[in-house]
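Below is one such record:
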Amino acid sequence: MTSRPPHWVAEVVAWFAQNARDLPWRAADRTPWGVLVSEVMLQQTPVVRVEPAWRAWMAAWPTPADLAAAPTADVLRAWDRLGYPRRALRLQECARAIVERHGGVVPDDEEALLALPGVGPYTAAAVRAFAFGRRAVVLDTNVRRVLARVADGTALPAPTLTAAEARRAAVVVPDDDAGAALWAAASMELGALVCTARAPRCEDCPVRASCAWFAAGRPADEHAHRRRTQAWTGTDRQVRGRIMALLREALEPVPQHAIDAVWPQAVQRARCLDSLVADGLVTRTADTYSLP
């Protein structure tokens, strides 16, 4: 026997039909590869920055085979300032695996997707739902926040996804493929546009009347003490970003003195440069550096 999802699932889906953003990876002519690229790019990066990068990327490498054959330096330059450039390397490794294992066609099988480099449970579920219209439990931060508020009455979900939370989310997902895929997209959109983390627009929410958090008076985040925030200024991430920006713009290998000029603290600079080399993002030759 199957269970019916809560009535507010249909309300969120109806809201989505009227309010969904027109994004290229949602278009009727989208490809599974385009969906996979979008999901990797959207990890920790807002849509407004991803959309132009995605369009350029898909124009350059419209299939996994195209990206698999591309020079890695070109891939890193195209990634530009999307952040966490190791994602670009993993995406190219993923493309090569798709070519080698699946004849250049993105698989729709969950096990096959999870076996691809850089593809974890969330990305596999998102590709199954958004590329193939299959039932999957898609749990990004937006969906988790919507469920935490509406169903649990808490401001924000726990910092780490729990097994109990995943089970609860699975119960809410409609049983049919089409309904489940719509719920995944709709709940994610509601979290992105209305049920936001810092300034939720409860007055515009289609399920405000059913929201346990709103009914409780919007209590504060009970997990606030467990959340860690990292400043950007002065961090290794900032230093690595400056080095990568220099190398992306360089037409020839960059000498050591140019690297030295991007950051004043020698020990931190050297540590970050070594980590970039170890990650495969930078190639060191004698006293010059370049993209691989």
Notes: The domain at 236-290 is CATH 1.10.10 (Arc Repressor Mutant, subunit A). The beta strands are 254-255, 283-285, 288-290. The mean pLDDT is 93. The radius of gyration is 21 Å.
